[in-house]
Amino acid sequence: MSTLLENLELYFRNTPQEKIDSDWEKTEKYDEVGPNVSDFIIQSKLFEDIEKIKYCSLDILFSQEIIENPKFASDFSF
User: Fold this and answer.
1) How far apart are CA 7 and CA 19, in angstroms?
2) DSSP per-residue string spanning 25-55
3) Residues 8 and 15: beta-carbon distance below 8 Å
4) Residues 15-59: pLDDT tens digits?
């Protein structure tokens, strides 16, 4: 069983340049799929920042709720 690299080498070795060019042109429709690398990095960073804000907000909300909740009792005293 041959590897992908071996198959690719055989394709380029045994295929006329006109056929390679024709096959390459058929892939142009895939050039516009998805975000480019820069947009992906920016979107990922924004998502990460939003998640941090969400978790920080939940931590603050949770800690305030415990502090302000009169029913909360710690099991120790000073």
Assistant:
1) 16
2) HHTGGGGGSS--HHHHHHHHHHHHHHHHHHH
3) no
4) 999 999 999 999 988 888 777 888 888 888 888 877 777 666 555
